[in-house]
Amino acid sequence: MLFKQKKNIALFVDGPNMLRKEFKFTLDDIIKRASKYGRIVIGKVFLNQFAPEKLIEAVANHGLEPVIALGEKDDIDVDVALAVHAMDAVHDANIQIIAVATRDADFTPLLQKIKERGKIAVLIAVKEALGTSLMRAADKVELLKKK
Known about the structure:
Layout (H helix, E strand, L loop, with lengths): L7 E7 H4 L8 H9 L3 E10 L4 H9 L3 E5 L9 H12 L6 E5 L6 H9 L3 E7 L5 H6 L2 E5 L3
Parallel strand pairs: 1-2, 1-4, 2-3, 4-5, 5-6
């Protein structure tokens, strides 16, 4: 039996913006949305150094890599780390789709660059507080709803 070749996906999750108790969706929901487009071969969740140990453990238990951003307490931002890792995936010939889970409009240029380099840009976001520019920069948009 021949297997239909699935596209390879790099999934990058903006933890501070997406993994919030008030949203009431889970990392499983994000993974499920990304998996609609193919097989996740790179999966990273970006957190700050003050992320609870249980959250870091949950990320690892989902088969994803927790990436911890360090910095001063009031000035920790995972954006640069996420963008750097995503650009590595842009230059990886094994990756066809890059999915970014965020609601931060600062990632608009990243989505544009992903498309410019010939990859498919998928945005996984929360409908609430989502900027139009971010949505329009993606090829595909998956909107998660608060439960």
